[in-house]
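FORM 12-B: Structure-to-Sequence Request
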């Protein structure tokens, strides 16, 4: 089995008062759009573009699901994170990722917000609003990336998760039989999966606000 080496986790709790926006973009998958924002920012800052690995991205969606829609365990004093063993015991099997090909995770970003925003906004107003996450996005430690976004039953809160790895693109997070297991609700990157808007992200579409305004950012190890 791959040797796991976890770097510090970065968790961002973001509660947005901004208006919601659901728009279909070119790729029709918000997770792919987030990866593209990350890679654009990296190449502009002279870091390499990262391989968009669908197996790693599927794990990112499982990572979100482990929170069961509970924003309050993403950051702050009640912060929780899935145990490392969950990668081998449940995330990889659920995704059809061969456990022997799990590779070290070199960075992770997690954000939760009450309302859905476009991926470019999630990138610039959530991820890049924090020095540590800019460092993680632009780090030379990574070679590949996987992103996922999901609402919860009936709408918000919405979770964004980005996992980075230094695995080799052709032999890390390999999907059994080369088949991507798509599961809804939620979208993940790298799988050529059209996953647009309300239907895919949320089982039934209903916007609600958890009644908090402002921006909260929390860092946790
Ligand atoms: C990348 O993100 C950083 C931090 O927000 C920003 O200063 C920089 O302008 C961005 N670069 C590009 C090309 O978007
Ligand atoms: C890159 O890896 C080194 C060595 O493991 C670590 O000290 C450093 O914090 C990492 N950089 C980022 C941005 O995570
Ligand atoms: C993966 O890529 C490396 C380097 O690019 C190469 O040496 C190796 O043979 C490749 N493995 C497979 C299974 O294609
Ligand atoms: C797996 O799928 C990719 C993308 O469709 C393809 O390029 C690759 O050759 C496939 N690999 C195997 C072993 O079937």
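FORM 12-B RESPONSE
SEQUENCE OUT:
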């Amino acid at each position: 089995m791959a040797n796991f080496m976890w770097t510090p986790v970065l968790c961002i709790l973001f509660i947005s008062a901004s208006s919601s926006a659901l728009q279909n973009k070119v790729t029709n998958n918000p997770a792919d759009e987030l990866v593209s924002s990350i890679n654009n920012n990296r190449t502009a800052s002279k870091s390499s573009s990262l391989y968009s690995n669908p197996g790693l991205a599927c794990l990112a969606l499982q990572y979100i699901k482990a929170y069961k829609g509970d924003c309050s365990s993403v950051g702050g004093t009640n912060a929780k994170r899935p145990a490392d063993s969950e990668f081998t015991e449940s995330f990889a099997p659920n995704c059809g990722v061969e456990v022997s090909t799990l590779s070290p995770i070199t960075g992770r970003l997690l954000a939760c917000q009450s309302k859905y925003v476009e991926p470019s906004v999630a990138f610039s107003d959530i991820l890049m609003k924090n020095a540590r996450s800019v460092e993680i996005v632009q780090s030379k430690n990574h070679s590949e990336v996987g992103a996922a976004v999901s609402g919860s039953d009936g709408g918000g809160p919405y979770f964004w998760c980005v996992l980075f790895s230094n695995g080799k693109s052709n032999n890390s997070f390999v999907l059994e039989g080369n088949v991507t297991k798509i599961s809804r609700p939620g979208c993940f990157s790298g799988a050529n999966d059209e996953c647009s808007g309300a239907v895919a992200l949320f089982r039934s579409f209903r916007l609600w606000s958890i009644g908090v305004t402002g921006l909260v950012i929390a860092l946790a190890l």
